[in-house]
Write a structure and sequence with these properties.
419 residues, alpha+beta, 6-stranded mixed β-sheet, 12 helices, 27% helix
Length: 419
């Protein structure tokens, strides 16, 4: 469960920007859009949040920051070698920032324990890394790592509450690797829940959504009925899904394709299964008519690709990040997808959804609480700023948020000029 995230000096996000899924004191839509956690200190959190703003405002960069944090946690110890560059880009429109590290921090709850974990990195090295845990309500300092420029070495503070082969993990941690990731590689059981949260519970999709293969895999097992229920609930008039898989055969490639291209494709697909997805509709006489998935509309294809990951997130309580959820989807389908997270029936494990969008028809107090709506815009120096609707104190249940947003009251809209 995500509580809060902060990022600084990453792409267009120059100054520290903090995004929170903590519930405010208001009781609006409390039974559907919020939940309480099992942590030692009760946290009331939000099930979703929407981020609005014009194109190129930095919305995607904010999601990319958490995706980058996840990637560094996952791979810095296992995939990177000494001297490899870390995948960070500082704010480049200011000379001072170009030489400073990017900083990331999350506060989350995993298995009833709250963690506060973060690090600052340049492409060359980790400058700082810290982890505090709250297993009994009070903070415990598990480790702090800080680069000393003058002595050109790290200063370490490994708290007594961190157990295991701490000195071995310390000595094994490269400059371009996280201590957390290194300790996991060397079998730290105590740090595993936090690492697994990054590795398994954080899920991302960009504007194109997901590949349909995962949803197709659910249709091959007992979960097909859940996928069909999802598609029917979205009113797509699809009566069945047929999935066929077969091993790749280079003979299906065109005869006139150059041999060197055939070799590359064959090498890449050798031993892999090719998935053929069909949709079934009823004709006027009630007979089945089979279509290729590619014959369906872009919106139907996208929704099918969403079905598997969406159901998987709801079933397992994941945190889902979607960039431009509205793309190729009718506004009512966007609301349908969001409301699945707002229902205790469809979201019993309190999965969370964070998405960027330009779809303003759902920007109202019947769908969202005021603390679930965020905005992103760029300042004159082209740095991105993230802020909450609560900063404007809109009237509960009375203010037309969509109208106020489109009229420019909250900012974060494009200023279009005549050519």
């Amino acid at each position: 469960m995500l509580i809060e995230m902060s990022v600084a000096n990453f792409r267009s996000l120059r100054d520290q920007q903090t995004f929170s899924l903590m519930k405010s004191s208001s009781d609006e839509l409390e039974c559907t859009n919020t939940f309480s956690t099992r942590a030692f200190k009760t946290f009331e959190l939000l099930r979703s949040a929407a981020i609005y703003g014009p194109n190129a405002s930095g919305k995607s960069n904010f999601l990319a920051a958490l995706r980058t944090m996840k990637k560094i946690v996952q791979e810095s110890a296992s995939h990177y070698k000494r001297g490899d560059k870390l995948p960070v880009t500082p704010f480049r429109l200011n000379a001072e920032n170009r030489g400073l590290p990017s900083e990331f921090e999350v506060s989350c709850i995993v298995d009833g324990v709250r963690y506060q974990y973060g690090f600052s990195v340049t492409a060359e090295k980790v400058h700082e890394e810290w982890l505090f845990a709250y297993p009994k309500g009070r903070p415990q300092r598990w480790f702090i790592r800080s680069w000393n420029n003058e002595e050109e070495k790290y200063e370490w503070d490994l708290g007594h509450n961190l157990t295991g082969e701490k000195q071995l993990w310390l000595k094994s941690t490269r400059d371009n690797a996280l201590f957390l990731s290194t300790a996991i590689q060397l079998n730290s059981e105590q740090l595993k829940p936090l690492f697994d949260w990054f590795d398994e519970s954080l899920r991302f999709a960009n504007v194109s959504g997901w590949n349909p293969a995962f949803t197709a895999s659910l249709c091959e097992v007992e979960d097909k009925s859940r996928v069909m229920d999802f598609m029917k609930a979205a009113d797509l008039n699809i009566d069945d899904i047929l999935v066929e898989t077969e091993a790749f055969d280079s003979k299906v490639l065109p005869d006139d394709m150059p041999e060197h291209i055939k070799d590359v494709i064959s090498k890449d697909l050798e031993g892999k299964k090719i998935i053929d997805i069909k949709t079934v509709h009823k004709d006027s006489e009630g007979k089945d008519v089979v279509f290729d998935l590619e014959d369906e509309s872009d919106g139907t294809q996208k929704l099918f690709s969403f079905a598997g990951p969406w159901l998987d997130a709801l079933e397992n309580g994941y945190v889902l990040f979607i960039d431009e959820l509205h793309d190729n989807l009718h506004p009512q389908l966007v609301q349908f997808l969001v409301q699945l997270f707002h229902s205790s029936k469809t979201n019993p494990k309190n999965a969370q959804l964070v998405f960027t969008t330009h779809e303003t028809s759902i920007l109202n107090q019947n769908v969202f609480r005021r603390d679930q709506i965020w905005f992103c815009e760029k300042a004159k120096d082209l740095s991105s700023h993230l802020f909450s609707l609560l900063d404007f104190s809109p009237r509960k249940g009375r203010e037309n948020i969509e109208q106020a947003y489109l009229s420019g009251r909250y900012g974060a809209i494009p200023f279009v000029r005549a050519i």
